[in-house]
Amino acid sequence: MNSLPDELEELPTERSCPNCKTENDFSFTYCHHCLERLDTPSTQSLR
Q: Where does the DUF7577 domain start and stop, copy by copy (predicted)?
């Protein structure tokens, strides 16, 4: 059942900063604009 558009299968390559809403590359740990810590899903499992 592959009826989804290709766009939905692509993972986002950017994430918004929780502080200033600036789009940052997914590999960034801190926002390049305000240096706010970015939440990463992998952070929890790395503890």
A: 14-38
